[in-house]
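Below is the record:
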Amino acid sequence: MLATLTEDRFSSDHWLYERKLDGVRAICSRDGGEVTLWSRNQNAIERSYPEIAEVLTAQGGPRFVADGEIVAFDGRQTSFATLQGRIHLTDRDRIEATGVQVFY
């Protein structure tokens, strides 16, 4: 769904809301082997976010699928501009040199 910025507020006890996170959509999967992070275009992206793949390898079960958003923050807000500094990087040294922390 496309988020729309508005000043109008809506509330209902019958609706659940989640915060809009401005990042990269990713599906994480594991089927007994290594964890794979997939972009919405079905590209493997775990080399761009090795710290996320490592945590999910260590803490995830042997088989799972998770759907989430990879984000970086500027203060308390998610920032796609901050995340852009490392979106296509795959070299661990270059990733670390950006100083950009990511969260899934």
Observations:
- The chain has a mean pLDDT of 91.
- The first strand starts at residue 24 and ends at 31.
- The two ends are 19 Å apart (CA to CA).
